[in-house]
Amino acid sequence: MTSSVRKYWLMKAEPDSRIVKGKDVKFSVDDFETARTTPWEGVRNFEARNLMKEMSIGDKILFYHSNCKSPGLLSNVSKEAYPDYTAWDSSHPYFDPKTKQDDPKWFMIDATFVSRAEHFVPLSLLRHIAESAESDPPDEIAYIGTDGVKAVKAMPLVTRGRLSVQRVSQESWGIIQMMSEKGGWEEMTFGKKKPSTSKRPGQASAKSSRAKRNSTDVNGGSEVEAKVDTNEEPDIKPKKGKKRKASDVDAGTWEVPQRRSVRTKKGD
User: Fold this and answer.
1) Which of 64-68, 94-98, 158-162 has the lowest mean pLDDT?
2) From CA 168, how far away is CA 238, in angstroms rounded?
3) Each residue of 200-215: pLDDT tens digit?
4) For residues 49 and 106, is the Cβ–Cβ distance under 8 A?
5) Which pLDDT band, with edges at 50, 70 and 90, does 225 fall under?
6) 12, 164 contact by CB (below 8 A)
7) Measuring CA to CA, which of 70, 152, 169, 184 is 20 to 30 A from 146?
8) Rounded Cα distance, 136 and 115, in Å
């Protein structure tokens, strides 16, 4: 059922090839554009699943991908949440033996590709805005105004980051769309931290080492992705003797191995 109140979302995916159970689980913006409409299967996190169950036909979705000149930006919810049948398929990369067909645990929506962005808005730029102590935007993107800065700073993407499905406010949606149309930050320097001068000679900084290992920046910053994301912790009980990965709430680390579901053209 189409809701009278349009909602906005951000969904992330794994754009690079990775083979799981003999299947490539990547889903790039090119794959999305080719498929046009695709089920968003493979989400194995309860919070992300619950957000998808709130979606209505016609809701707008932000989708990013780092390896294209004009990454996909806009898509629509074209079918509301229904059971994710891939969870019952033992050959599927994200099979969950704990869920049953008569009592489904996981759900998915269908999303339809709409357009690519003229100017890709990198996560590093959004973080640069969010971490600034200034209430005014940089001169290069002065057009977003102080309200735009507030909208960016309030985005879950920069306040917690790791969840593969996130709410986006109408104000934040409008600012991201405006930035994708106007650009202007191409000559800006952001996304690079100054080296620490506090460590003693000959002593490596564990924090710096971790940051270096955890970096997923591409062209100056990690890119906002869509669909199932490996930075999100699955809510599937690990095997005995193995430790659980870091919590979804640990927003500073983007290192949980990327989970990505296999996307196929609807109707195949």
Assistant:
1) 64-68
2) 31
3) 445 444 444 444 333 3
4) yes
5) very low
6) yes
7) 70
8) 30
